[in-house]
Amino acid sequence: MHKFYKSKYIISSGEKIYENSVLVVQDGKVFDIVENNKVPENMEVIDFGNAVITPGFVNLHTHLQYTDLKPLFKPEQIPQNIDFADWIISLMKQYFFWSEAKKIKSFKNGLRETVLSGCTCIIQLSREESFLGILKNLDLKSFVFLETFSNNEENSKKEIEKLQKQIRENTSKNVTIGISPHSIYNVHNTLWEEIAKFSAEENILVHTHLAESQDEINWLNNKPSGIDKIHKLVKWDNMKPYESGMNPVEYLEKLGVLERLKGNLTVAHCIELDEKSLEKLVSYGVGIAHCPRSNMLLHKKTLNFNNLSQNILQNTGLGTDSRFSNYDLSILNEAKYAKDYTGLDFQKLMDMLTINSASILKIDDITGSLEEGKDADFLVFNLNSFVILSKAKDLYQDIFNKEKPDEIYIKGHQIAKSGKFTSEQWKFLNESE
Ligand SMILES: [Zn+2]
Questions:
Q1: Chain centroid to CA 351: how far?
Q2: Distance 322 CA to ligand 1 centre (A)
Q3: Domain annotation for the chain: domains and CATH numbers
Q4: CA of 266 to the centre of ligand 1 (A)
Q5: Greatest C-alpha distance within the chain
Q6: pLDDT by residue for the chain (433 residues), tens digit each?
Q7: Are 305 and 313 in contact (CB under 8 A)?
Q8: CA 262 to ligand 1 center in whole angstroms
Q9: Most buried by CB count within 10 Å: which residue of 54, 81, 308, 413?
Q10: Which helix (H) or strand (E) holds 92?
């Protein structure tokens, strides 16, 4: 059976906008986009009126379990300098003492916030398996990257075995499980190599934090670094790079990790890389998760797309990171910030929210744009004015000025309306605990 959704505008992808058209959905998938007068008579049409339909968004990097941590700053009084190592240590010291119940509550609070901002796909990084149980029951497209750390060869062998077991035991049709070696400085080279081998054999996606801080660069060069403070806290006194003097990209390249993980690796942040290193990453099929607000809060800098090639831009998606380094978990606010900061054009921004991330995650055949055969994952934004929006720019401007979409659909089913979940499987998230 066909369902018909009429709207003043339909954005099927960054560059394609339809006017006065109808989105035709069949069995949860996009069947077609047709002109108003092509809908057969006597068919029930859901008319959104003066609104725009867009593809669902992707949050390409987040840690929802940290939502309820007590922040180090209030948005209105951001300190001049947050020390990165102190920030990590504060996170560890709080989270370590939380009960399982508190972690789950915090995760749910984050999930509610980011999904209601228009995410129909999320990338969650965590060590615990408990969040998988929640995500397994939802129609959301979710990826859980199991976080891992190690400081020597022995730990590395134990960690890879643990990861292999976790992945074997947790396969699910709704959740894709990947591996997240935390970073270069928190993962021994042996574990990096083991992960690369295993992931290449099993075609598993990998996600890491890369070139996020000056501390990381100093550590790679055997210089005094805030990283030493973190290692000291966990009693990893002799954690050193396997070879010093390389930049983060060279470090992974020399280990053979980039070659082995071709097309399966996503890296978050990258703010300490020059264009040449970013180009190299992209040439290995690496995707970039751009989290501008987190970068600015913690490091006072972020990627500047005015100076970067199209090639890099196309391989970049947007993420909020955790609420512990952000004001909120709204992907729409993240996009708005990126727009204000870099002057990126709206069309490219829409791609970064949708198809770029879908293709980094290798699910661009089922989501990321509203095209025939893909899942009907879409958002509805009521437009503010009745002014005729003849230019795409004005249309986008209106979308990015919103707090959240008015309606969210996944696989053709409405899951939320006016900031509340409407579908049965999601309703448990309406009560904020
Ligand atoms: Zn992160």
A1: 13
A2: 7
A3: 2-55+368-429 (2.30.40.10), 57-360 (3.20.20.140)
A4: 12
A5: 74
A6: 899 999 999 999 888 999 999 999 999 999 999 999 899 888 999 999 999 999 999 999 999 999 999 988 776 666 667 899 999 999 999 999 999 999 999 999 999 999 999 999 999 999 998 899 999 999 999 999 999 999 999 999 999 999 999 999 988 888 999 999 999 999 999 999 999 999 999 999 999 999 999 999 999 999 999 999 999 999 998 899 999 999 999 999 999 999 999 999 999 999 999 999 999 999 999 999 999 999 999 999 999 888 899 999 999 999 999 999 999 999 999 999 999 888 788 899 999 999 999 999 999 999 999 999 999 999 999 997 655 656 667 788 889 889 899 999 999 999 999 999 999 999 999 976 5
A7: yes
A8: 21
A9: 54
A10: helix 84-95
What the block records as the tokens of 152 is 């020597």
- Angle at the Cα of 41 from the Cα atoms of 35 and 44, rounded to 5 degrees: 85
Distance 426 CA to ligand 1 centre (A): 25
Distance 95 CA to ligand 1 centre (A): 15
d(CA 61, CA 155): 26
Ligand 1: centre distance to CA 175 (Å): 19
Q: Tell me the Ramachandran region of residue 225: left when phi exceeds 0, alpha when psi lies from -120 to 50, beta otherwise.
A: beta
Instruction: Give the strand order in the sheet containing 119-126.
Output: 57-62, 119-126, 141-148, 175-181, 206-210, 265-269, 287-290, 316-318
Burial (Cβ within 10 Å: 0-12, 13-18, ≥19) of residue 89:
middle
Residue 393 Cα to ligand 1 midpoint, Å, equals 32
For 146, the token pair is 């199991």
| DSSP letter string, 180-246 | EE-BSTTB-HHHHHHHHHHHHHHT--EEEEES--HHHHHHHTT---HHHHHHHHTT-TT---SSSS-
Question: Alpha-carbon distance 36 to 245, whole Å?
Answer: 62
Whole-angstrom Cα Rg for the chain: 22
